[in-house]
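Q: Can I see a sequence and its folded structure?
A: Here is a first one.
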Amino acid sequence: MNGVATYTRFELKRTFRNRRSFIFSLIFPVIMYFLIAAPNRHNKAFGESNGQLFPISAPQYYMVGLLSFGVMVAGLSTGARIAAERQVGWVRQLRLTPLSPRAYFRAKVATGYLMICIATALLYVSGTILGVRLPATEWVHMTYLVLIAAIPFAALGIGLGHLLTVDSMGPALGGGASLFAFLGGTWFPLTGHGAFIEFCQLLPSYWLVQAGHVGLGVHGDPWGAKGWIVVAAWSAAMIGLARLLYQRDTKRV
């Protein structure tokens, strides 16, 4: 047990020392937020969710929107670190130690969620700097749902790290996060009906965005049974995929 705790602490330290990953995963969404929201901080013509209009300011609206993007990037960025470790042979060295696969995954999940929590906190702080004010219950409810919706992305990041090389992880990380954000409604509200909307509602990014909409004044459960089922199914599938790709990677010479 002490070995597991030691390795987890080591992983956390290495995460903060990786400046490129730290800046891209955490600082980039914050920079985007200030560039978009700050010039429109007094504009209150935002705030549409599920066909309902809310008198929401631009800083609050974009904080919620970029929250989902920041969480996805932070979760997937774990894969970039794993790919770099595989390239230098660090993962292979770990297999020669008594560290179990379960302990390895626990450490990776812990570091991934640390990045997610920091990304969330930075956007919350940025929002408050620009005047966002929410009741404490809404902050807690939004954070709770966002952390649950982040599970598929944290697992997918681990899986991709054991599948792709360092050179291919960059495009996969940027392209994957952008595609999920686009289809989830991060940049614009997805309204109406039809096959496209039905398809988007089958993606975890859609419900991650909906979780953030608690911060737009959406009361009650923004997910409903369908949201919980989709998030649970994607979580189970991505965890299984990450485990499968890890096992396949360990069999390579």
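Q: Show me another, different protein.
A: A second, unrelated one:
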Amino acid sequence: MQRPIRFTAAGDILITRRLPAAGDSALREAIAASDVRLANLETTITDGTRYASAYSGGTWLTADPGCLADVARLGFNVLGFANNHTMDYSYGGLEDTLRFLRREGIAAAGAGQNLFEAARPAIVETPGGRAAVFAVCATFEDAARAGSQTESMPGRPGLNPLRVQTVYRVARPRAQALREAAARTGVNTLRQAHRSQGFLPPLPEGTMEFGPVLLEEVESEAQEGRFSRADERDVQRTLEGVRRARAACQAVVVLVHSHEIKAACEEEPDYFLEDFARRCIDAGASAVLGSGTHQVQGIEIYNGCPIFYCLGNFFFENDTVEKLPADFLEKYGVSIHASAQEGLRARAAQATASLGARRPVYQTVLPRFSILDGKCAELELLPVDLGLDGPKWEKGVPRLADARAAEEICAYLNRVSAPYGTRWRVQGQAIVQTEGET
């Protein structure tokens, strides 16, 4: 009889400090019970001497190799490395991170020396069969995107991209007013010149631009709004990889890192992400695991397979980054010779809704699920707390949640999962799906 493949999954590992030697033994035991133990690595791993890129994922992130050793001791054996921080420290930072992952015996997915390497899955052999893990990223600077190799040119190191196009639908009368405003201000002049010279493709029929923003004209105000769609080139590359992997593996999982949201609410995944996740399942994936928005989003059970739109933070040590480049310090108005902590304090001082003070940012779940015959055979969620109310030296570090926090996390999860028809309840130390819900 075929044995299921057991998975434990976490969200973003943004770690910047070494863990205590003892660590959280209960958490370590919970992770170690599975065959495939995966998360998103939300920082580069270097010795601190690599050049900072001219751009970053928001904060230039790098951690000492010892931090990665601590992650390995927690039990993780697969890490996605396709996210908005992959190229914070340029090609050298990418190469170092992949090298340290290999040294720790952790399989990596989502980044590589070219697009072929970045797009291929990490493979884990388990007693229940072979598992494939893909990783893609929707939130990135274009310069971070891995490039394809050709007969005459080498590929470009970077991450496995899922490019996203945002479209704003505007009723015709409002579109006409925007055309007139564009003509008066010249906001489209340079792009029109580049388009006439062949440097930009023609606009799709029924669309217009206002600066770099693409607008789609619609008949009525009821049709207006913001929408998004993923680039079919990246979608088809991923779906074909899933199909190939499913032909050779008992389970296929796709990690997606995305900060995009439908509107102003970070609890809602973007339109493209819902569509992309379901298409991955249709192509043969057994589960889709999201990360990026720094708080948990809803869980959908689609054709017998779980979609975790975002698992939020598993480690969140954004306030204890030890080194930051001059670019960051200048941005927040402090001397380039100031410490990283001074720069971080300057950023926090201008914030009106700091991530560091929001409870959903410091609560998450650790899904444990089994895949058998390509479908989810069992699923439970371990509630995890990151110590928002504890001492500063424990803030951002995961531990299994107490009973009060578990109920709080469950109530939040029910709210964000409601659009997908799933309901949850606390059962012992875990959160499980309410019977009768699919």
